[in-house]
Each structure stands twice: as structure tokens, then as C-alpha cells.
From TrEMBL:
Protein name, UniProt field: UMP-CMP kinase
GO molecular function: ATP binding; CMP kinase activity; dCMP kinase activity; UMP kinase activity
Family per record: Belongs to the adenylate kinase family. UMP-CMP kinase subfamily.
Subunit structure: Monomer.
């Protein structure tokens, strides 16, 4: 716990008390920055990053990948980066406070009010921590549904130099997804917030379905 607290302070540069994302307004006291958030969920290799890039281009969202933010922290040479690196290599989930603070910081530094959170949340603790620290409720959840066999093939064929793209770690990541993240999909589905897409198809077909979802959300003011 001590290491996590120290890491949070080094990431954020201030104490870890709760706050809502804020912005300055005409030199007066900060006001709340109302943001629109979509959680993009799917198993490892389901195509989240590719789909998010297309959503950014067409609908003007900012794309925040929890995994990329963690890897960026590692590359920055943080004294605690080794802890994050080891947990990711073992297919384990990084403590929620760390992940949420990195997301929170990125949202504050981005001049936009529409965000795609790629691969987040990953478990119930992520949800509780995100809601507690940001007080933000997602507009909806984009769920990229893809068979494990297809996701495995994609992960093993891509060449990104990622240490967590090996068969042993991939199996651990699938297990974590099934045990921790899929229940979240069911939870949000019970609230009518899940938009499910068949992600085993070619990316062009997948994005046609995604475009329909986001166009409808824009029309409804979601």
C-alpha cells in the first residue's frame, strides 16, 4: 500500500483526495468540466485500439488507453515503473487507484470533453474507484464481442514488441477478462448501457456497426 501511495503522488504531483475534473473559467473559481465518457470493452485482441482510432477520426472523441497510459508511465522511468511492468507481464491488474489517477490526469490535460476509455474498467474495483474519484457515469459501454480463438490468433500474429503478447500471458489475460471484466458487461447490460458489436468480422464491417451506435447516441444527445 505504501508503494502505491508513493506512486500516486509521483504521478499526480499532489495528495490523492477526491475531486471532480475541473477547468478555469474566465479567471474565476474553477467550474466542473462536464465530460462524455464511453467505456470500450472487449477481450485482449478484440480490436479496441483499431476501432477507437476510427471513432476518434469520425466523431471527435479523445482516445485514452489504460494499458498505454501504464506503459507510458513505465517508459518515463518512474521509480515504481518496475512494479507496473511486472504486474502487466504476469497478466495481473494494476491497482485501481494508479490506473484511475493516470486516466484522470490525461483527461485533465486534454482539451476535449468526449473520451473513449479503452480497456477500462477491468473489474468492479475499477468502477468503484473511477466513480468515486471522478463522479462520472459512462454514457454507454461499447462491447466488442470476439471469440477467444480469434483473439489469440490476432495477438500472436501482431508484432508490436510487447512483452505481454506471449501465449502464457495471453491465457492469463483471457482468464482475468472472463472472471473480472465480463461480469461488468452484464452489470451495465442490466442498466441498458451496453452496445454489443460482433468484433470477429473484418474491421470495416465492425466499424459500420460502431458508426450506427455513435450516430444514434449523438442524435439522442447521449
Amino acid at each position: 500500500m505504501g508503494n502505491c501511495c508513493a506512486l500516486l503522488k509521483s504521478i499526480m504531483g499532489f495528495a490523492t483526495e477526491d475531486f471532480i475534473i475541473q477547468e478555469e473559467h474566465d479567471g474565476r473559481l474553477p467550474k466542473q468540466k462536464k465530460v462524455k465518457v464511453v467505456f470500450v470493452l472487449g477481450g485482449p485482441g478484440s480490436g479496441k485500439g483499431t476501432v477507437c482510432a476510427k471513432i476518434v477520426e469520425q466523431f471527435g472523441y479523445s482516445h485514452l488507453s489504460s494499458g498505454e497510459l501504464l506503459r507510458k508511465e513505465i517508459k518515463a522511468g518512474s521509480e515504481h515503473g518496475t512494479m507496473i511492468q511486472n504486474m502487466m507481464n504476469e497478466g495481473k491488474l494494476v491497482p485501481s487507484d494508479i490506473t484511475v489517477r493516470l486516466i484522470q490526469k490525461a483527461m485533465q490535460e486534454t482539451d476535449n470533453d468526449k473520451f473513449l476509455l479503452d480497456g477500462f474498467p477491468r473489474d468492479e474495483e475499477n468502477v468503484r474507484t473511477f466513480e468515486k474519484l471522478t463522479r462520472i457515469e459512462p454514457d454507454f459501454i461499447l462491447f466488442l464481442d470476439c471469440p477467444e480463438e480469434e483473439m489469440t490468433k490476432r495477438l500472436l500474429s501482431r508484432n508490436q514488441g510487447r512483452e505481454d503478447d506471449n501465449i502464457e500471458t495471453i491465457k492469463k489475460r483471457f482468464r482475468v477478462f472472463q472472471e473480472s471484466t465480463l461480469p461488468l458487461v452484464n452489470y451495465y447490460a442490466s442498466k441498458g448501457k451496453v452496445r454489443k458489436v460482433d468484433a470477429a468480422r473484418p474491421v470495416e464491417d465492425v466499424f459500420e456497426s460502431v458508426k450506427t451506435i455513435f450516430s444514434s447516441a449523438n442524435e439522442q444527445g447521449a
